[in-house]
Amino acid sequence: MISQKLAVQCLAEEMRGCPVPTVPEQFQHKRFAEHDSVFFGHVPVRAHKLANRWQFDESEVRTAGRTIVALPWDPSDLVDPRPHSPGKPKPATPARTGWREQIRRWADHAGFVMRMKNGCSCGTSCQRRSDGWALPCGLTPEGLLQCCANHSIACVLPVPTLVWSHDTWLIPRTLALILDQWEEAETALAASSHVCGTCGAHSTDSTWHTSTTSGWKVICPACAAAGLRRYQQELAGATYAGVRERGPRAEDFLCAICEPARPAAAWDHCHEHGLIRGPLCGSCNTMEGQGKEFLARKGSVQHLLNCNDCRAHRTLPPHHRIAALRRHLHLERGLQGCDVPMHMCVSVTEVADSGYECTVRCFGQRSSSRLRLTAAEAEHILARTAESGML
Predict the structure, then answer these.
(1) Could you give the count of Cα atoms lying within 13 Å of 207 in the half-sphere of its Cβ?
(2) Which end of the chain is more exposed for a tag (fewer CB within 10 A), N or C?
(3) What is the DSSP string of 43-87?
(4) Could you write out the DSSP letters of every residue in 194-238?
């Protein structure tokens, strides 16, 4: 296995001298991708998560590069990109993966930028018809190239290869073939990412996706509950260092916060005392680490106090103190039933050693509520929050 950086170097070596316009340096696994494959052109390369880092099989990476190099390339062999003849209904193209629509959006945005910069003398609203393929008003081929020459799709650069006519644009046949095959494969992988890997049930519910140490895992709530264990405080008082070395694995448990429970991905632990709190899925673990919205989740305070030392001192971890104040003010002064993230409704700013300046305004409230909490009042709120987690 090789790192993402080495994968880019391998692709650059394989593509040396290749006339197909590609950008190997953009070969990378996107953070919120729906699957674990990264495309180089129309060739998918499986990404493997090892020690929380994405890695690739070197032979697969080089094969992807050689596949593109082996394609015939004639920039003068052009095809019309329009997927339908005039007068016929336009086929449904997934907006998420349609490369034709992506290029049209680039052109529309570039046209808007040029009109804002230079103005437009055509005397119209400058809005393109939904079936238009020509350059939008105010944009020239040179202007599009200036704005979008480095825009890529699956590590391929389409814009520098385009040839413009009065009513559409033309693209080299090889590039159209690459992008058509990429679009088909990407759509198939995205669809398969919604299928439970255990029972085969299908859903568009993103909560079925669980990040694990080896990549994404898709499992429905029923299969998760049937195949994994609920945490019953088996590791109360255990240190994270000891559990990390000797197990058990967090992946064998359900998330202690999610409902319905998702598979856990990591052992959440108190960074102040080094003690295990319980298993969390990747999403909950990230949310706990950020400290902004974790306390809005049901059972979150009890979970934080699963650290025996925090429980003994009846205190919350330092990075949750502001969130606890925000939570209290959101419940006390915010709009009842407001489900907007707390940090968007409540601001809490510490003022030296004299307390906190606070502002509360939920979406839908006409005016904001401003108040100042003294240090003593803040400590009282924090103590009450901790006590609520002791029940």
Answers:
(1) 11
(2) C
(3) EEEEEEEETTEEEE-HHHHHHHHHHHHTS---TT-EE---SS-TT
(4) TB-TTT--B---GGGEEEETTEEEE--HHHHHHHSBPP-STTTT-
3 state DSSP class of 245: helix
pLDDT at 97: 53
338 in Cβ contact with 364 (< 8 Å): yes
Strand pairing category for 209-212 and 266-269: unpaired
Lowest mean pLDDT segment, chosen from 59-68, 87-96, 203-212: 87-96
End-to-end CA distance of the chain: 49
Per-residue pLDDT for 84 more than 70?
no
Tens digits of per-residue pLDDT, 121-140? 565 555 554 456 777 777 78
- Is 369 in a helix, a strand, or coil? strand
pLDDT tens digits along 299-319: 999 999 999 999 999 999 999
What pLDDT, on the 0 to 100 scale, is given for residue 391?
Answer: 67
The per-residue b/e assignment along 234-266, b for 16 or more CB within 10 angstroms, e otherwise, is ebeebebeebeeeeeebbebbbbbbeebbbbbb
Tokens 């059972």 belong to residue: 299
Which residue intervals of the chain are DSSP H helices? 4-14, 58-69, 99-118, 141-148, 173-192, 221-227, 240-246, 282-290, 300-304, 308-313, 321-333, 342-345, 375-388
pTM: 0.59
